[in-house]
Amino acid sequence: MSIPTILAPLFVQVALTFVLLFWMAYSRASALKQRQTKLADIALGQPNWPAKAQQVSNSYNSQFQLPVLFYVLTALAIITRHADYLFVIMAWLFVLTRIVHAYVHTGTNYVRHRFNAFAAGAVILLIMWVIFAVRILLGLP
Fold first, then answer.
1. Domains and CATH numbers, the chain
2. 3-class state of residue 79 by DSSP
3. How far is it, in rounded angstroms, from Cα 118 to Cα 97?
4. Staple 17 to which of 22, 63, 89, 105, CB 3.0 to 4.6 Å?
């Protein structure tokens, strides 16, 4: 597998994180400008943002949970030369679940759909880690 092929899903995940970061900044700046909240109300991290700004913020923050394990696994798979076709397919599936999760999180925020996307991503990532660990521990290619 080529490095660009392996890293493409990771780059999409990073792009999703930055899109949410800029959206969060815009939402928060707009909320302050429109006086939906005041700096004094959020200065110590109080959750006093309007609902939409908080939704986007929560979605952004969730990009530093499961995806961190994805980033580490991708780096390790490259270093150990265990990033194969199966790895890339599963990486794309994981990133797709993160996109769906963010879409639901910042849209309808219907918890059942959001949880299903999160759970699917968690299971995919767990399987990726198990495959990687077994291959490393048993010395398989």
1. 3-137 (1.20.120.550)
2. helix
3. 7
4. 63
